[in-house]
Amino acid sequence: FDLSQCKKMDVAEAGIRTQKTRVCYFYDSLMGTYYYGPEHPMKPHRLRMTHALLSSYQLYKKMQVYRPHPAHYQEITQFHADDYTDFLRRVSPENEKDYQHQLEKFNLGLYTDCPIFPGLYNFCQLYTGASLDGACKLNNGQVDIAINWSGGLHHAKKSEASGFCYINDIVLAILELLKYHARVLYIDIDIHHGDGVEEAFYTTDRVMTVSFHKYGDFFPGSGALGEVGDQKGKYYSVNFPLEDGIDDKGFLSVFKPVIEKVMEVYRPGAIVLQCGADSLTGDRLGCFNVTLKGHGECVRYVKSYNVPLLVLGGGGYNIRNVSRCWTYETAVVLDTAVSDYIPYNEFFHYYGPEFRLHLKESDMENR
Q1: Angle, helix 319-333 to helix 45-56, in steps of 10 degrees
Q2: Quick one: residue 79, left, alpha or beta (phi over 0 = left, psi -120 to 50 = alpha)?
Q3: Catalytic: 40?
Q4: How far apart are the first and last CA of the chain?
Q5: Is the peptide bond before 257 cis (omega within 30 degrees of 0)?
Q6: SS (H, E, C) 231-246
Q7: Is residue 3 within 8 Å of residue 10, measured between CB atoms?
């Protein structure tokens, strides 16, 4: 048995893999049917729009498409507290008035940004199951990149809902990846600081968290430059606070050098990339001026390192732009050029009057 041949074969296989990236994508038609309520900015309907748009571009033909399993209680409680998870399982709009104490304790309900809506726990199970399934596919070497646009809910804490997030699918997916990889890198380009993920891994060096976000009188209030981790995790949390109006050029001028240095020094075995679309120009809650091209270039750049990659969604409150963004970024992952003219699809009328995929920067001040 010639060991040198074995080595040559591995290099050849690696070459083949870089030529054709194996991608899987998770979606369940139920994901887009959940409803936070009429005044709430979070609209799961954006997932249905994203799926319809990327399907109209025929992108589904270039990747493995899976329906995720709903995450089990035992999987969710790998990170979340039992009493919190039990409560999410039990509470409903019909009985929430009987749970005043727990609602306050767990930061849920009427006077918070995390309402109780029909099917809440099932919604959490689906988006979390998809992230876990993606992590498992990567661990097993079945794919190079896994996509779950319903995931990326980065604010949820061990025993607390926060910022529209109830279960932290990212933390659970990273825990899954840590079963096979010594080091996992988490990158967050949502306009809000990825506080729930940072907090979960603040004292370990096995996960490095890197977040680029608006800072200063802005939710969640954390993510200062000086938040660097603690104990064994000291210097394994990286925060890059940004000002209003940052555009593609400005964002990429900080994103690329920071990620280049992180990759060089940390050398992760897997990467989780949270692609919150509220950092785009024209977002209802955001104040950046980044276009699809800039946002998508972050995805392309991370992909270029050829490290197993889990790509997740996150924030995004202009639903037309969210579906544009995540469709474009699916195309980026697939190395597929797509037309700027949006093909006819179920939600075509949402994209008028231009019916174009790409966004233009606004004339807002870059501070």
Answers
A1: 50
A2: alpha
A3: no
A4: 63
A5: no
A6: HHHCCCEEEEEECCCC
A7: no
| pLDDT bucket at 12, cuts 50 / 70 / 90 | very low
With contact defined as beta carbons under 8 Å apart, do 190 and 152 qualify?
A: yes
Q: Which of 155, 193, 213, 295 is catalytic?
A: 155
- CA 5 to chain centroid: 40
In the three-class reduction of DSSP (H, G, I as helix; E, B as strand; rest coil), residue 322 is classed as helix
Per DSSP bridges, beta strands 145-148 and 23-26 are parallel
Give the residue from 74, 66, 58, 61 showing the smallest Cα distance to 29: 66
Rounded Cα distance between 109 and 99, Å, is 10
pLDDT per residue as tens digits for the range 139-179: 999 999 999 999 999 999 999 999 999 999 999 999 999 99
91-139: per-residue pLDDT in tens? 999 999 999 999 999 999 999 999 999 999 999 999 999 999 999 999 9
Is the pLDDT reported for residue 11 higher than 50?
A: no
Residue 154 · residue 172 · CB < 8 Å: no
Is residue 84 within 8 A of residue 156, CB to CB? The reply is no
Rounded CA gap, 306 and 319, in Å?
Answer: 30
Residues in the chain: 367
C-alpha to C-alpha distance for 282 and 288, rounded to whole angstroms:
8
Whether the CB-CB separation of 343 and 57 falls below 8 Å is answered with yes
Which amino acid belongs to residue 115? Answer: P
The token pair at 142 is 């079945």
The region that residue 217 occupies, defined by phi over 0 for left and psi between -120 and 50 for alpha, beta otherwise, is left
Q: What is the CA radius of gyration of the chain?
A: 20
Read off the tokens for 335.
Answer: 């190395």
